[in-house]
């Protein structure tokens, strides 16, 4: 799908309404002026972070052609100083295209432009420049600083597109190395990243783990950190249960005494669900306090609420029917289910709270509980949920809290009929206001947004998805952030210890502790990125395994 006037307006309107974003940078802060390349880099970062969240924006070239450059003064960065056939803003876009594709020579760029005349037209080119003109532009007309800005801008766009699940022509470099004769700074290498991560992880572990307590009384020979060390160790190995892990832990630990598997499980079983959640929230509060020291962490944002399943339970669930409740897809399998609320969007993806799901609990009750926790920790602007949360009473509760929401709607007869009419008209998108009955002559007002799926395998009304939002269709682009919670679940489950126990508290603790390890990893990554590069990108610089290995060391394993 192509960018339209409407889609571009939607993007820039969203940017303008973001309270924590100074854009355009040259106009909103005295740090920059109209010729500041740092201001230009900031503006590219702001626009690209929102651009790819719009459902119509799945092309890097669209963004290259649409980035506002009319306000920027290129004259101080133009070594020619006299009028030429090609304007600097046009050449800036052309070389961003070259950097996005990673072409080493201008010849590849010329061939690409020659074969895409419609792109030349969007770039404002009557015809593609020849190879020698482009070579002279890059090596003689551009200053070294503007060359570096183009490289940084292209890397930012690649990362923002990749974060939004948009196809990119190449993998972005983890750190941008300076190319050119004026380069005099080195970028962080793997060892520098590890050294910084070790120091940050050491500090974070000392801040976070004290929030967890087993309440064992005085005179215990095995320190509490040994239990958290064992739990972290279990997270380092896939499908490792407590008994086997405890035996290996003895040999790898530098401690004189370590927990045995059954002792570890007994201590965890004594913790109530309420106590586990209380400790978890205290730990996340400590994490947020540390992150809030940086300008890159905003104590506000978009949250996604979802439910995930544990591995299918294959044993006897007699007596546990209210806890091992089945799967969301209504199969013949049974599984424990856990609900989470997680920061998504441009924020660091912390899991703010987690809770078990029991039989008979309403989705409204679950969402209200998780939002209570989230709003104690951060300022929530928008709530994203899956279609299982499309209850009108739940949506009314969110609206009453002053929050916006985006949630897919399960298609009933009226929505299917409307989708068929849209298909006959060849219409890709449609919005209509709807009142949902709450009972006793009370109604919840929402907006239904029909959106046609690109490359759908269906040839009927199933080509369309229907979303509901209490802020209109302009917020629909934010729903693309919800995929981050699924990505997070994959990492979280990788950090979970294996068990066949039916003890509800033990099962939930394993999941909650895995959520904490995941959140620590993402927090460490943000702090390391900020210290080494001065900015934060969603693509992690520090790996999860590195973080867990360092946590293992800090909690007492050699």
Describe this structure in words.
The protein has 558 residues and is of the alpha+beta class. Helix content is 47%, strand content 12%. The chain has 20 helices and eight strands. The chain has helices spanning 5-17, 25-28, 37-51, 60-66, 88-101, 106-114, 117-123, 131-141, 144-163, 190-208, 224-236, 242-252, 261-269, 273-291, 363-377, 392-400, 413-425, 483-494, 504-533, 544-554; strands at 300-309, 337-344, 351-357, 379-385, 404-408, 429-439, 442-452, 464-469. An eight-stranded mixed sheet has the order 3-2-1-4-5-8-7-6, with helices on both faces. Helix 11 (224-236) crosses helix 12 (242-252). The longest helix has 30 residues, at 504-533. It is globular and about 80 Å long. It starts with a helix and ends with a helix. Mean pLDDT is 81; it is low at 174-186.
The secondary-structure class comes to alpha+beta
Number of strands: 8
> Secondary-structure element sequence?
HHHHHHHHHHHHHHEEEHEHEHEEEHHH
Oligomer: single chain
Keywords summarizing the entry:
558 residues; eight-stranded mixed beta sheet; 47% helix
Helix and strand arrangement:
Blueprint: H1 5-17, H2 25-28, H3 37-51, H4 60-66, H5 88-101, H6 106-114, H7 117-123, H8 131-141, H9 144-163, H10 190-208, H11 224-236, H12 242-252, H13 261-269, H14 273-291, E1 300-309, E2 337-344, E3 351-357, H15 363-377, E4 379-385, H16 392-400, E5 404-408, H17 413-425, E6 429-439, E7 442-452, E8 464-469, H18 483-494, H19 504-533, H20 544-554
Helix pairs in contact: 1-3, 3-9, 4-5, 5-9, 6-8, 10-19, 10-20, 11-12, 11-20, 12-13, 14-19, 15-16, 18-19
């Amino acid at each position: 799908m192509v960018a339209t006037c409407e889609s571009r307006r939607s993007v820039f309107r969203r940017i303008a309404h973001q309270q924590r974003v100074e854009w355009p940078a040259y106009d909103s802060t005295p740090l920059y002026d109209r010729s500041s390349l740092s201001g230009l880099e900031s503006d590219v970062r702001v626009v690209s972070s929102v651009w790819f969240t719009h459902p119509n924006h799945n092309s890097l070239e669209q963004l290259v052609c649409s980035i506002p450059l009319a306000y920027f003064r290129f004259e101080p960065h133009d070594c020619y100083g006299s009028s030429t056939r090609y304007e600097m803003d046009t050449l800036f876009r052309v070389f961003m295209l070259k950097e996005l594709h990673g072409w080493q020579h201008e010849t590849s760029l010329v061939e690409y432009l020659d074969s895409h005349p419609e792109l030349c037209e969007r770039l404002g080119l009557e015809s593609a420049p020849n190879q020698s003109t482009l070579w002279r532009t890059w090596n003689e007309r551009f200053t070294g600083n503007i060359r570096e800005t183009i490289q940084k801008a292209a890397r930012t766009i690649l990362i923002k597109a990749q974060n939004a699940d948009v196809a990119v022509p190449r993998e972005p470099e983890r750190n941008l190395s300076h190319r050119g004769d004026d380069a005099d700074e080195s970028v962080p290498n793997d060892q520098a990243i590890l050294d910084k991560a070790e120091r940050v992880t050491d500090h974070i572990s000392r801040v976070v783990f004290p929030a967890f307590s087993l309440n064992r009384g005085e005179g215990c020979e095995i320190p509490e950190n040994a239990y958290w060390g064992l739990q972290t160790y279990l997270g380092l190995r896939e499908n490792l249960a407590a008994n086997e892990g405890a035996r290996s832990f003895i040999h790898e630990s530098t401690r004189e005494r370590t927990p045995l598997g059954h002792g570890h499980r007994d201590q965890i079983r004594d913790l109530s669900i309420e106590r586990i959640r209380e400790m978890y929230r205290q730990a996340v509060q400590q994490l947020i306090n540390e992150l809030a020291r940086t300008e890159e962490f905003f104590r506000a944002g978009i949250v996604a609420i979802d439910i995930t399943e544990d591995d299918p339970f294959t044993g006897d669930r007699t007596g546990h029917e209210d806890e091992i409740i089945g799967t969301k897809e209504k199969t013949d399998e049974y599984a424990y289910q856990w609900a989470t609320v997680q920061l998504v969007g441009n924020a660091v993806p912390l899991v703010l709270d987690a809770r078990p799901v029991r039989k008979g609990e309403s989705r409204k009750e679950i969402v209200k509980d998780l939002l209570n926790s989230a709003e104690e920790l951060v300022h929530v602007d928008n709530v994203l949920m899956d279609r299982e949360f499309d209850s009108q009473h739940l949506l009314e509760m969110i609206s009453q809290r002053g929050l916006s929401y985006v949630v897919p709607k399960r298609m009933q007869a009226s929505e299917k009929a409307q989708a068929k009419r849209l298909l006959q008209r060849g219409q890709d998108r449609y919005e209509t206001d709807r009142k949902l009955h709450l009972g006793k002559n009370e109604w919840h007002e929402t907006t239904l947004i029909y959106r046609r799926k690109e490359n759908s395998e269906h040839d009927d009304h199933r080509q369309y998805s229907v979303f509901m939002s209490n802020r209109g269709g302009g917020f629909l682009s934010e729903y693309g952030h919800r995929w981050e919670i699924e990505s997070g679940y994959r990492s979280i489950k990788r950090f979970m210890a294996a068990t066949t126990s039916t003890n509800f508290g033990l099962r939930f603790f394993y999941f909650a502790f895995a959520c904490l390890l995941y959140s620590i990893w993402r927090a460490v990554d943000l702090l390391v990125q900020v210290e080494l590069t001065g900015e934060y990108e969603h693509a992690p610089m520090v790996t999860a395994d590195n973080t867990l290995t360092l946590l293992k060391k800090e909690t007492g394993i050699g």
